Amino acid sequence: MGTPSAGQIHRLGRDQLASWVDALLGERKRVFAPVLRRGLRVLRAVERAQDVDFAPGRTRWSPKEFLFPRTETLFSYENRDGVPVLADPPADDVPRILFGVQPCDAAGLVRLDSILLQDPFYARRRELTTVVAIACSEAAPECFCTAVGGSPAGQEGVDVLLAPLETGWVVRALSPKGEALLAPRRGGWETAAAGDWEAALEQAGRVAGSIGRRELPAAWAEKLEQSFADPIWDELARRCVGCSICAYVCPSCSCFDVADEGSDACGSRCRTWDSCSFRLFTQHGSGHNPRATQPARSRQRVLHKFAFYPLQHGGRAMCVGCGRCIRSCPVGMDIHAEVVEVMSGRPEKEAGDVQR
Amino acid sequence: MPRIGVFVCHCGENIARTVDVRKVAEDAGRIPGVVFSTDYTYMCSAPGQKLVMDAIRERGLTGVVVSACSPQLHEPTFRNAVQQAGLNPFLCEMANIREQCSWVHPNRAEGTAKASLIMASAVQKVARGRALSASEVPVTKRALVIGGGVAGIRTALDIANAGHEVVLVEKQPSIGGNMARLSETFPTLDCSQCILTPLMVEVSRHPRIELITCAEVEEVSGYVGNFRARIRRRPSFVRADLCTACGDCATACPASVPNEFDQGLAWRKAIHIPFPQAVPSTYTLDAASCLNTQLVSSKSGYRVLACERCADVCSRKAIDYDMRPEIIEREIGAIVAATGYRMMSGEGLADYGYGRYPDVVDSLEFERLLSASGPTGGEVLRPSDGKPARDVVFVQCVGSRDPVHGYPYCSRVCCMYTAKHALLFKHKVHDGRATVFYIDIRAAGKGYEEFVQRAMEEERVLYVRGRVARVTQVDGRLVVYGADTLSGQPLQVRADLVVLASAMVPAQTNVAARLRVPTDAFGFFQEAHPKLRPVETLTAGIFITGAAHGPKDIPDTVAQASAAASKALELLSKTRLQREPTIARVDEAVCMACFECVRICPYQAVEKHEVRARDGRLLRVVARVNPAMCEGCGACAGACRSSAMDIQGYTDTQIFAQLTALMTGAAS
Amino acid sequence: MTEPTLQARTETAAPTWKPQIAAIVCNWCTYAGADMAGTTRREYPASVRLLRVPCSGRVNPLFILKAFEQGADGVLVSGCHPGDCHYVQGNYFARRRFAAFRSLLNFLGLDPRRVHFSWISASEGIKWARVVGDVTRAVTEAGPLTDWGRASSPAQVTLPEPPAPRPQPAAAELEAVTGHVRELAASLLREGKVSFVLGWAPGPSPGQTIPAFIQRPEDAATLVFDTHSHADLAAFLAGPRKVSGKVAVLVKACDARAATTLLAEGQLVREDVVLVGVSCPGMWRDDRLAYRCHSCDGEVGALCDFTVSAAGVQPGALPTGAKRATGPDPRDLQNAHLESLPAAQRWAFWQEQFADCVRCYACRAVCPMCYCGSCISEQHRPQWVPTSIDGRGNTAWNLVRAYHLSGRCVGCDECERVCPANIRLDLINRRLALELEQRFDYHAGTDPEGAPPLATFRPDDPQEFIY
């Protein structure tokens, strides 16, 4: 074992991972990690490693809510003897770690960055956040990260990647933030054996191979955009019931609404998640709604992710293939299948291009 | 941004004693949207009102809050004032800091804090208020008077004499009511029928009164100025246009039943006239007692008649066995309910032996015994054996002032008529003995006290202060067990006849429900305000009079009848009526057509409305409110799940803001 | 006066703490009664603040929710005595609504000392003063309301497990039903009797069955009926999800009740729909029988045009003979357990559930009874439900929806199934349905012509909860 150094890969036993979490908590860092409660696997701020469910795999919701909360106060106001007084929300500068998220979720944060980094609240939290992802050891039936350029051991947006081995884990820092997080630990950690990392990647490759869904090439964006008026959208989305599960479980959906809550005397301006699937999302004050039907709203979600956004952002889809929206949709709407289906109907399609 | 003025009233010391009115005005000044606030000794005074009006003009107020007394009192005053100053009256709100604050919270700090909250709530309501304007509806210039007793007769005559049509509906075959049954009236002792019958005749001859007897109001729909009454008339089986009231039919009729006009103390025939002076002066065949049992139930045209003696003897051929119930519908502008009273009956009288001993009678029965036109020709004879009664015991407060056996209220007339009864009895039986059990003597009225004194002193009627426990029969004579509370001695009095001054109870309890106006716990009609609106009900256009409203004597009844007539005339003298604009409204874009509002509305004011495209295509069906029918109760809005329904002047937005203000002093 | 709302709720009761009580009173009786108390100088606690409305019938029970949200520690609603209503019937409707809403609040664990109802007439100034005194005392005992929208301590509730489910039906039986469904669907489309058949088809996830809209006879072969055909397709018959044109819709017993209620509420034109009842062996969730199915006999009711069972297709709503023996409803067992707990613990339980709500409105989206084109939660003037996805907003939303389903929910439990936060909406809806059944003898989804229980009344409705 040589001197621990930056870039080095470590190997951790099962208990070491838990001790690490406890150590981070001891340093007064806030750790968000998967826990099981009420039959849900969700990310929560944990108080002890014991509560963490370290198994790889999807949580019900993506980690975006820790950077882009469901609801947050932008400022509060108060009428003090007739004079309005504004106040910023209390600053929260505690460093935080998203621990044990999936690589696709980390990639989702990069998508969010492209929209929300310009917002000081988001930016500040992003700066304080280090992402520790766990490579996937199996793919769920709805997973399709590989179809949108990701991987079960994807590195995009990941500061530290953990990958499961037969016994224990390999740990590797992938960014300066990750280096900084690992630096204080390196002394106590075993260096990974040669081939550990490769074994982990190989495992991830097997997982990728088990994903049965075909690639959605970036090149489809333009053709998809042309499908805007295709009646196929009406057919595809006929069963869409117009809830917002898809948007709210999505690691990359970033839409919000801003509303004032309170009274003449006091209150706050709040930013709250919103979804393009809601009728009210595009309802004009006049009563006119440019997306008047549910299929039109459903189409928006698909085209934004696979056509409008990629065309403006260098071809990357606004989707990381986590499969949550497919898994949780009350009526089994399948965004991957929709894209494939629409493309199968485009004239320029290549034969054999559209099997799942 | 609204510009609201807040005017805090001291009400002399009434508010200022326990509420720091200056502080309330200062608090008002800090509420966003309040541009002017002040306090003043008497806001309702002319200078006070001027303060409000000047502020509206000078400061361009868009809303006014008067923190003073209950809106029940001065809301109209200030709404008038703001209207004079050019502001919509519905942009003026009262903050009730007197009845609901200063008068009930003696702690100055608490009272002031609460007064500020009440004021703030009103500010928020006004800030979200809208200018409302009343809609106008025409008035049908015809009154419906329900009940043909002296109250209904007087009301009908007053309205008709003033030039408007009246429909007078009476359940019995004749008008006259209970007053026609009375012998003499206190304190003047003039004959009841003698003073009543001229009025009855006037009714029958009046060109503007349509008299419908044997009839009941079955349903009233519509609203003030525009009611529609559905009247069901029972068949009398005698054609009024042919009957000459000769009485041959009654002579021939073989079926006898107790005569209800004589309180069952005498007999009448199935075909009868209630009493000789009845109006209309027409015989009536009572289907219930006629031998032809199928008169009502069988279908016309096929009937086996068991008896046709009345028809046989009628030279005018006035008997019509085929007469059917008739439905009469009338458009009505104003309604006066004068349904009167009856004597209490039932369990509450059991201790007094009523119903068990025939010689225990109630006061109305005794009136018939005293009456010269009654079953005994005015002689006081015992119902049991027809022998003259010498010892008569009168029991007052039977069921009245007695919540255990009857009613907590005082029936008001019993003290006087008991004195009259005793006095008349003594006039007829000079050596008779009259004993009155009483609790208190209530003889407040012109000449009343003197009348009671006359009974006591001149006629030597024995007044015993005390309640009667029970009445039994010993050796064939009635014994009244009571107590003399002045001497503290129990008392037993033997009697030939016991007269119970039973409680007066409402004669009709279903009429109020049909008119959809409230009654009190005993079934008497509830007036809109006990002092200021004594003959109005809370439903516009429906008035009340007489004993249907509460026990009262003839002078009061007649006075109230004229009062009700004048309120009805006030309404009928208008050509158009303004309707309160605080009514329901539908946001048709939000309505989801579940039509629970249509089911719920007690006024049938919500209708299904078809929304059509320009080409006539049906787009959807939504609820729509008919402003002429809506009373603004809000039962629809309370039920509307999509909150499409709202009540103007009490909108959800206003209520939310008020709740917020009441809880936090501010508004949402 | 200008104390900020957000800080208005103090954590602990100061010794001088006095409750804030909102009293919503009718103009004609109780307001006048309170005036009478003033005129006769009857002192009473200053904690009660009055809001005047025309009639107790004007009171949307959600006003009570709003009052709590705005900082009330207690609420009193008061109107005219039965029979005295100025508007004749308003208080009768109010009485039914309050009964339902109060039962909801009780079930959710709000301290019952916080919500009060009374009838006080214009002459009952004395009664007004007494009721205000009683209410103030009760609310004072209950203390400041500090846990509206949050659990003050962990609920730690474990709901009892349901009884062992019966075995799953034989695959052959379901295949037979599937075959008959396909045949019927194809023939209805072929004969042009309908333009769509609404049925179920396999979904993207394993073991998932989802709604399918079949337009061409040849596509009928994609239809299936299995133990995961959960979706209540009646949801596509009304409101914003309504499928236009004449449709045939497959309904299980629960879905048929939903269709019946839609008919009763005038949302469905009977002639526009061909109801195809499917003899249902019960739906399975993972490895357990869906809770609602334990007590359901599977019969589709009298409304159907066709009934499909393993034996074939029958015209009309003839019994399929598949009528099952039923057992106790696990939801009732779990509710009984919840109701055996102290109110505070129940409150914590539900607040923990609501805390996870993300306001995706999937519950609303799949509910056949949620057919409003513009949901009350979408309205901002006034705002019935705070938009914020937090305890306050979530409590409001879940309360509003539960109340709006009272007397209407047919217990298809779709809201609970699709909830991504696993909120036990089924328990709330079930509890309210039972309340209305017991109080008003009303069974939602059984009578296509019956008046909804909150849109009617009886003068002698029970009112044991009213002063």
Question: Could you explain how this protein is built, in words?
Answer:
The complex is a heterotrimer of chains A (356), B (668) and C (467). Chain A has helices at residues 14-26, 103-116, 120-128, 176-182, 196-210, 220-226, 232-236, 245-249, 294-312, 324-328, 335-344; strands spanning 10-12, 30-37, 40-45, 71-80, 83-87, 96-101, 129-134, 160-164, 169-173, 190-191, 256-262, 266-273. Chain A has 356 residues and is an alpha+beta fold. Chain A has two domains: 10-210, no CATH class; 220-344, no CATH class. In chain A, strand 8 and strand 9 (169-173) form a beta hairpin. The longest helix of chain A has 19 residues, at 294-312. With 668 residues, chain B is α/β, with parallel strands linked by helices. Helices cover 27% and strands 25% of the residues of chain B. Chain B contains 17 helices and 34 strands. The radius of gyration of chain C is 25 Å and the shape is elongated. Chains in contact: A-B, A-C, B-C.
